[in-house]
Amino acid sequence: MKYIIVGLGNFGSSLGMALTRQGHEVIAIDSSMQKVEAYKEVISHTICMDATDEYTVKGLPIIDTDIVIVAIGEDQGENVMATALFKTLKAKRLISRSINPLHEKVLQAIGVDDLIHPEKEAAKRWAKRLSLRYFVDSFELSDHFSIVEISIPVALIGQTVDSLQLEQKFNIRLLSTMRYEYYEDSFGRTQSKPSIQGLAVPEQILKDKDVLVIYGANKDINQFLRSVGVKIK
């Protein structure tokens, strides 16, 4: 897929690098040449440009782009102006970063397709990570259902998937197992890359350092975790 990301702050740059690593084509723009130069080796394309200038923005391949993300967070006015401009230029799917409730209402009035709340979403994930000893990450499908990644509890090492009887006992499903590989990026920062083991099968033996990818209702996942000795605050 092809993305345009507006703003190379902490959120925009991290998103651009992650999408590039996944094999997508990313055009990241920022008004700071310093930021553009800093990320040119780790994001597909970086361009120094004023995202509120209609004349220059028109030169971007907006029609051929699947998703435009306005990631500007420091300047709400610039965020709104850039979002409105891409909406006027008929971006196929437009997502913008929301800073506060009033800002969110303005973006909704412009007609964005979706909103990003990186601080709020990060806080929710950290709340789970801090309250569950084995918690790695999660993706909330709704208020009540999630897909969660959990480091394998010691009690499960050596058991087969079938022997856990997750669906029968807890009404949850083990989708897959994965392992994280760690490496240093070009900035010397430690990054992690998941290595997915494939769909879980009944005869699969769970091993040390496995990360379990589980789907189900939050209450059922918590019940399962308690059953294997994970303390939930």
UniProtKB/TrEMBL annotation:
Gene Ontology BP terms: potassium ion transport
What SUPFAM superfamilies does this protein map onto?
A: NAD(P)-binding Rossmann-fold domains, TrkA C-terminal domain-like
InterPro entries attached here?
A: NAD(P)-bd_dom_sf, RCK_C_sf, RCK_N, Trk_Ktr_HKT_K-transport
- Return the Pfam families for the record: TrkA_N (PF02254)
The chain positions of domain RCK N-terminal read 1-116
Listed name of the protein = Trk system potassium uptake protein TrkA
Which species?
Psychrobacter aquaticus CMS 56
